[in-house]
Design a protein that fits this description.
It contains three helices and seven strands, in the order ααββαβββββ. The protein is α+β, with helices and mostly antiparallel strands. The chain has a seven-stranded antiparallel β-sheet with strand order 1-2-4-3-6-7-5, covered by helices on one side. Strand 6 and strand 7 form a beta hairpin. The protein is globular.
Length: about 180
Amino acid sequence: MVRWATLLLLAVAAIPLAAADTKCDCDPSQPETMKARQCSLCVEAEKQPPDQIVFFLKDANPRKPNRLLVLPRAHSMGVYRMADLPSATQIELWTAAIAKARELYPKGDWGVAYNGDHVRTQCQVHVHIGRLLPGVETSNFVVVDGPAAIPTPTDTSGYWIHPIEGGKLHVHKGEQINETVLLR
């Protein structure tokens, strides 16, 4: 019963996200294009030193006070996808996200989530870090040994990832809305 109630709560919480499909005209060479709300993470990326690969940022959404984001410094015009990142940057991003999650949640009750392209409300790639909600486990996952083994998305869906016994990770894939498995 608790699992169904949790899933229902997650589904209701996700409704505002379901209509996203972000339009993005961000162009760092034209500052006026960076003023749209969906470009705010691109603006933050531009503030970082050019040689920095990834950086952390507290989620600005007041409804998500317990969330931290990790982002790549690099971005491009338009919606930037995980698959657009070089594999070395993807590994750096996942490694940083998981290391920070382990630091923040040493009991192992952490999760990291990357939303699919159709529900993201920001142009810039970003991974949510937070406490994993209890009872959200599904059977749609692959087991990997660590961040370097996390596959690159081959479609428009995202991932949510959490630890399992033996230092391995469950990578849940095939969903658009993934951050709802994390405590707000």
